[in-house]
């Protein structure tokens, strides 16, 4: 019969094996600060976009029968597209840096089989959603861009959660729900976008930092 010390040693060995298997199958270097930084970038972008939109409507000009101004609309849309691209680039760069820093601190590789699986499974819904959004923009259905982005982004997070921290799945569910609700409040798209990509990211990032990284040097 095994002694208590032997049983404790066996249990510790099993836990070590479990941790190694988890590291080999899941990308665990995602930093909570990555979510916070991405959320802050989204909030800054939303603030600038809101300012531009207010200026656009404050200028005055021809108002169509649908309730929006036609003069200067094309220019505003392209400015918003470039702003969204800049926000995305800033969010990706900051998130990558925090993730790289956490991986280096824990002596883990940033690019391995698990990270490849994570990116592939995340980019499939994102690429599909990107083409869908481009189609909406081509047909001038701009009101549906915000809900579509939120839903496809949520699907990407849920799909990728199988290869990283499972907590990210709940963020994905919230993004999907928010996108579906946004479908019924189309003229509030920027606010839903701000809530989904800004506020939820910051809350999620802080929770992940508190849960996994707090007190770790």
Task: Describe how the helices and strands are arranged.
Layout: H1 4-25, H2 32-59, H3 73-105, H4 113-138, H5 145-160, H6 168-182, H7 189-213
Helix pairs in contact: 2-3, 2-7, 4-5, 5-6, 5-7, 6-7
Would you write up a description of this structure?
The protein has 217 residues and is an all-alpha fold. The protein has one domain. Helix 2 packs antiparallel against helix 7, helix 5 packs antiparallel against helix 6 and helix 5 packs parallel to helix 7. It is globular and about 55 Å long.
How many distinct beta strands? 0
Report mean pLDDT, rounded to a whole number: 81
Residue runs with pLDDT of under 50 for 5 or more positions:
20-25, 61-69
Helix content: over 70%
Given the structure, what is the number of helices?
A: 7
Question: How much is the radius of gyration in Å?
Answer: 21 Å
Largest β-sheet summary: none
- Structural class of the secondary elements? mainly alpha
Give me the strand/helix succession.
Answer: HHHHHHH
Strand content: under 5%
- What is the total number of structural domains? 1
Described by the principal axes of the CA atoms, the overall outline is globular
Cα end-to-end separation: 41 Å
List keywords for this structure.
single chain, about 220 residues, mainly alpha, 7 helices, about 75% helix, globular
What would a concise description of this structure say?
The chain has 217 residues and is mainly α. The protein contains seven helices and no strands.
């Amino acid at each position: 019969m095994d002694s208590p010390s032997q049983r404790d040693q066996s249990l510790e060995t099993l836990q070590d094996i479990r941790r190694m298997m988890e590291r080999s199958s899941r990308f665990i270097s995602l930093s909570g600060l990555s979510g916070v930084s991405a959320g802050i970038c989204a909030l800054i972008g939303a603030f600038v976009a809101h300012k531009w939109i207010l200026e656009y409507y404050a200028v005055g000009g021809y108002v169509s029968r649908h309730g929006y101004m036609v003069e200067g609309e094309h220019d505003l849309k392209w400015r918003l597209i470039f702003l969204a691209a800049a926000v995305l680039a800033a969010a990706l760069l900051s998130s990558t840096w925090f993730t790289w820093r956490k991986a280096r601190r824990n002596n883990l590789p940033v690019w391995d089989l698990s990270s490849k699986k994570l990116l592939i499974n995340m980019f499939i819904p994102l690429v599909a959603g990107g083409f869908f959004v481009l189609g909406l923009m081509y047909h001038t259905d701009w009101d549906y861009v915000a809900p579509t982005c939120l839903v496809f982004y949520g699907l990407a997070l849920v799909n990728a959660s199988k290869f990283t921290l499972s907590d990210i799945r709940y963020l994905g569910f919230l993004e999907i729900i928010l996108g579906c609700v946004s479908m019924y409040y189309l003229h509030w798209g920027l606010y839903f976008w701000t809530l989904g990509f800004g506020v939820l990211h910051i809350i999620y990032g802080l929770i992940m930092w508190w849960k996994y990284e707090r007190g770790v040097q």
